[in-house]
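Re: the 328-residue chain
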Amino acid sequence: MGTFKAVRIDKAEKGTTVALTQFDEADLMEGDVTVRVEWSTVNYKDGLAVTGKAPVVRRFPMIAGIDFAGTVEQSSNPAWKAGDKVVCNGWGMGETHLGAYAEKARVKGDWLVRLPDGISARDAMAIGTAGYTAMLSVLALERHGLTPKDGPIVVTGAAGGVGSVAIAVLSKLGYHVIASTGRASEADYLRKLGAAEVIDRNELSGPAKPLAKERWAGGIDSVGSTTLANLLSMTKYRGAIAACGLAAGMDLPSSVAPFILRGVCLLGIDSVMCPIELRKQAWGRLASDLDHSKLAEITHEINLDGVIEAGAKILAGQVRGRIVVKIQ
């Protein structure tokens, strides 16, 4: 047993404190697999945790970080052995279970997904929870029955992590993708990812009508609130919106009109406690349906000592695409 570097969050008299420090391996939580963490990433929820802007963390002390990719060091779980390459997303890491911004993690083997062939540990974290959530959203739209011939798919928060991966995947699958963003300067970036159209988020920011002109067959929304209400009001007959985020708020100032007059479906996407078989399906599809050459377009790299600053930037809307964190 020894110590290792970790981003640690502690309870303070007012709010929380966060620092890159040494953590004692003896204080890791229960689990049947110990992993040498090699790469992590910064998601919106990670930003909330390290800044203390929302009560994401529910035990202290906490190691932040909801994603990791790395190599198994020790295992008493029959599914895993030393040397296996694995990915872990969610399951309460960084919230109720010590998380990923550390050189070691101990978790339940049932939480792990084998790193797919053709995806490096770094690429897996360039995808991360944001990209895995985007893929879960695509799968939900497909289960609803949507295909490219049904019409456009709108993606909100398009320049963020979920949006960037969603656009890249949907465009490769042949969809006409409409990207909604509040950053006009990112239009060229979004078109490089595969967006056919780029619209200003202000088109979706006013009070939603019960029903508005039909504009798209479906959508992937990471914004919530009024944006989601407008998306629903503009969705074509028997279309669907996959809701996976709340950057603008948890409220939904909508009406039942889209549901009972157009048969629109609202598909809820949960990445944290998602069943393991669906996780495996999502990561398998990311290996085949994401153009990995586009990961370079959406990714930049930091070290563990840059996580706290990056968390503040992602909440301020100053991050394009994905941030990968080199742990070792």
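The chain has two domains: 3-115+291-326, 130-268.
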